[in-house]
Amino acid sequence: MNPSLSILKRTFSNWAGRLHVLFLLVLSLLTNLQAEEAKQGERLRQSLRISAESLVEGSLQKTIDRIVAKQPGATIILSPGEYRLDKTLKLTAKHNGMTLRGSPGTVIRGSISLNDWKPVAGHDGIWQATLPMPVPAHLNPRLIFHDGKLLARARTPDAGWLETEQTLQANGPIQLEIPQEHWNSAWDNQSGLVIRAVQKWAGFEQVVTGIDTKQRTLTLPLAAISHRQEKKNRFWFENTLGDINREGEWIYRPAENAILWKPLSQRDTSSAIPPVDVSLLEALLIVDHAENVTLEGLDFRECGSAFSAQGEIDVQAAAKRRGAIQFRWARQCTLKNSSVSLVAGYGIDLQTGSNSIRIENCRLHDLGAGGIRIGETVIAPEPEKQVSHNIVSGCQISHYGNIDFGAVGVIVFQSSENRISDNTIFDAPYSGISVGWTWGYKESPCHHNIVEHNHIHDLGSELLSDMGGVYLLGPQPGTIVRKNLIHDLKCHEYGAWGLYTDEGSTGILLEENVVARCMKAGFHQHYGKDNIIRRNLIVDCGEGGVRRTKEEEHNSFTFEQNVVVNTTGHFLHSHWKNRNVKLNRNLYFSNAPQPWRWGMWKWAAWQELGYDKDSLLADPLLVDRSQPEKGFQINSPVYQELGWWPDRSQPRPLADVGPRHVFVVPASE
C-alpha cells in the first residue's frame, strides 16, 4: 500500500475514534442536563408558597402536614409575616426530604402578647396583666420581650452584686443572712422573691421559701455546692415589686399568674401601654426521626425553657438546659441562613442519635443559656444513640448566658467527629467553645472533633471564673484546635484563659492559634496527658502567657515553636518542678527589663533543667501588636530561625487565622 495512503487511513481512524468519544461525551452531558432540568422542574412543581393568613385552621403544623401528605418532599415557602406557634412545631419521618424556606421578613414566634394592662394601686407607673391561661410551675416566665428586645427582670442592686462572707450550707436548706442595710421589710412569703448568686464558674437561682424578720434570714430550699464557695459569696435580689425602679423592668407573680412591668415610656391609660410578649413553649421546633430536612431563611424568636419551680443550682455549661430548636434521631438535616433569638435555653440542640446535621450561616443572639449544644452528657452504650459528624459553620453567636451565666457559645458533650469552624462568638459571661464532658482519664466517645478558624472575643465580663476561649476536657484523641483568633477575656478571680485543657485532657493538638489580652494566661493546662501545643502566638496575656497547674508522672504536654510576648517578663506560671513536660524551639519576648523568668528560674537556670534548649529570646517583629493576627514582619526571626515559614511559595503563617469569610446577617432578619 502507498505509504501516504496508509498514514492517511490511520489518521482518519484516530480522528473518527476521537469524534465518537466526543459524541458520547456530549450525549451524556445533554442527558444529564435533561435529567437535572427534570429534577428542577419537579422541585418547582412541588414548591408551594403559603402565608400566615392562608394557614389551615390558623396552624402552621396542620398546613405543613397536609402539604407533605399530598406531596412528599415538597418545598414550602413561607411568605413574609409572623407565624405564631401555640404548640411546638414537629417534623418527623413523614416530613423526610422536605424544605421549609422563609422569605425576608418571615418570623416564627413562640409567644403570646399581653395587652390588657391595669395600673398597680399605690405604685405609679407600674402596670399588671394576667396571663390568659394557667402556667405550669416549671414554665414560669424567665424572659419576656418587647419590640423584639429582652426586658430585664427587676433586681436589687441594679448592677453588680452584694457580698457575704457566710459559707452557704452544702446540705441545705440555706439560711442566708442579710445585713440590716439590705433588709426589706416589705418582703413576704407570697412576694416571689428570688435570690440569684454566682460562684466560680456557675451560680444558682432559688425562690425564697421562708423569711425570718427577727433573725434577718431568708430560707433557700436547695443546698449550695461546697467546692464552688468563694471567699465572699456574691448574690442579689430579683422579682419583687420593690425591685422595679427602671423603665422596662418586670416581675412575675406566680400566685396571681401576672406580669408586672414599668413601660419604657410613661402612659396614662391602659390602652396606651405597649404589648409585652411571653413564651410558654419549651421548644419552637423539634425534628424527630427525620432525614434530609432543610430549614432555610427562617427567623425563630421567643421561646421558654423548663426551670424548677423552687429554683436550680446551675451545673457547668448549663448542661441541663435544652434548646429552642431540637434535633432528635435526625440525619442529614440542614439549618442555614436563619436566626434564633430571645429564647430562655440554648438556641439549637443536637440530641441523641442525631448525625450529619449542618448548622450554617446562622445568627444566634439574646439567649438565656448558650448558642448550640451537641450531644448528651451521659455516655450511651448503644452506637446508634451516639451523636456525631455534625457541622457548625459560619455562625454568629452573641449575647448569651442571660439566665444561665455559665452557658457556652458552642458545646460538644459526649460526641465525636464534629467540625466547629468559621464562627464568631462574643459578648457573654463564660466560655466560647467547649469540647468534652469527662473529668479525668476515663475513655469517652468524645474524639476527633475539629475546632478551627473561629473568632472568639470579649467574654467573661469579670462575672465568672475558670473559663476559656476554647475549653477542653477529658481524653480526646484526634481532636484538633487550630487557626482560631481568641482575645479579650476577663474573669472574676481566676481563669480567663485563651486555650484551656482542663481535667484529663489527652491527645489534643492545639496549633496556629492567636491568643491576645486574656486576663490570666494564653494557655493553661490543669492536668492532662500528651497534648501538643505548637506554633501558637500568645500576646499580652495577664500573668505572662503559659500556666501548668498539676504535675503528674507522665508527659503533660509538648510546647514547641510557640511565640510568647508580654509586658511582665514572666512567661510561665504555677508548677514546673516536675520534668514531665517538654518545651523547646519557642520564642519569648517582653518589654519588661531583664532578668525575665520561667517559673522561678532565670533563663540560664531554666535551660540547665533541659527546657527550651533551642529557643530564642528576641523581638518577633509583629506587624501590629494590638492586632497580632496580622502576623510578623518579613524579616522576623519567627520565620528565619523558628521555622514557621519553610516554604515561601505557601501562604504566610497566620494569614488565614480566624473565620475565612465575613459573616452575612441572614436575610430572614
Automatic annotation (TrEMBL):
SUPFAM superfamilies: Pectin lyase-like. It comes from Planctopirus ephydatiae. This is Pectate lyase superfamily protein. GO terms for molecular function: lyase activity. Keywords: Lyase. The keyword Lyase applies. Residues 325-487 form the Right handed beta helix domain. The keyword Lyase applies.
